[in-house]
UniProtKB/TrEMBL annotation:
Source organism (scientific name): Acidithiobacillus ferrivorans SS3
Transmembrane segments: 250-271, 283-303
Molecular function GO labels: metal ion transmembrane transporter activity
InterPro entries: CorA-like, CorA_cytoplasmic_dom, CorA_TM1_TM2, MgTranspt_CorA/ZnTranspt_ZntB
GO CC annotation: membrane
Name of the protein in its database record: Mg2 transporter protein CorA family protein
Length: 309
């Protein structure tokens, strides 16, 4: 699915005429930017795929070129909600030349790209790819650390308030963790394919770094799975607790209504405008009051012993 962006957001962060080797970066490229970067017109569909925020991680080889997409975690636009999204990074690997493509810059990669732009001689393409995978694994670790802290903060808040807003916050955290699980599965599969590329296997340091990043991604996936299960269990537990509190409140109201029902009934009977037994005697008022109070007190003691009030 192609995604159109405003014209002023398109930028080309590389030399117009790329050399046979090196690194170049494209942010939301236009077709003209794509061609100036030395890319084939037939590969323009790949650039459009990167503009789609829902693009999944994958790897495809086309002759001497390797096309890769990886999903990075990005904090959502709402600063008040712990919501995270996934944004794809496109990579074209061709020998010692590597091109990275983004729909828009985001925090995990911005410092790395800024550092790369100031290097007089960029590292080898496989070293850049290995560094990107390392950043990918670290970005998920950082995001999971923030989400875990948000879970603990939300748990303490729920202990005090149990408000709908806190439940919605926990729901957003759970949704973010579920998205992390799905994205990490694709990233792990893609990283494994990258580690098996001939270009990578010929470079021992890059191979070791990619294998380390792959292991860290697997650990991050396991953490995301555990945190997602924890958040889901918390939601179920607090939902059950809220329902139990509602039931307890209804039970207390019902018990109190039963306690006050008897004196109310007696007062109603002796308040009707008709002839009643003993209504002209002086002690009937105190008798009705005492009878109602005794019955209510007895019911209250019974319910108290049962723990209902």
């Amino acid at each position: 699915m192609a995604v159109s962006l405003p014209a002023d957001s398109h930028a080309l962060t590389s030399a117009p005429e790329p050399a046979a080797g090196g690194w170049q970066h494209l942010t939301a490229p236009l077709p003209a930017d794509w061609q100036r970067a030395g890319q084939l017109a037939d590969d323009w569909d790949f650039a459009q795929d990167i503009l789609d925020p829902d693009e999944r991680s994958w790897l495809r080889r086309d002759g001497a070129r390797v096309f890769i997409t990886l999903q990075f975690p990005v904090k959502g636009n709402d600063a008040d909600v712990d919501s995270w999204e996934q944004r794809p990074l496109g990579i074209i690997l061709q020998g010692n030349r590597i091109t990275t493509v983004l729909a828009r810059d985001f925090a995990p990669l911005s410092p790395f790209f800024a550092q790369m732009e100031h290097l007089s001689s960029p590292p080898e393409s496989v070293e850049i790819l290995a560094a990107i995978l390392k950043i990918l694994a670290q970005s998920y670790e950082d995001a999971l650390h923030q989400l875990n802290a948000a879970i603990h903060d939300n748990e303490q808040q729920l202990d005090w308030t149990q408000s709908n807003g806190d439940f919605f916050t926990l729901l957003e955290i759970s949704k973010s963790l579920t998205r992390f699980e799905v994205a990490l599965v694709g990233n792990i599969a893609t990283a494994f394919k990258i580690s098996r590329l001939p270009e990578i296997r010929d470079d021992l340091p890059a191979t070791q770094q990619i294998d380390t990043a792959l292991l860290e991604l697997q650990v991050a996936h396991e953490r995301a799975r555990v945190y997602a299960g924890t958040s889901t269990s918390m939601m179920d537990a607090y939902a059950g607790m809220v329902q139990n509190n509602i039931n307890h409140g209804l039970k207390v109201v019902t018990v109190l209504a039963m306690i006050f029902y008897v004196p109310s009934l007696l007062a109603t009977l002796y308040g009707v405008n008709t002839t009643l037994p003993f209504q002209k005697t002086d002690w009937i008022f105190w008798a009705v009051l005492g009878l109602g109070t005794s019955i209510s007190t007895g019911l209250a003691l019974i319910f108290r012993r049962k723990g209902w009030i």
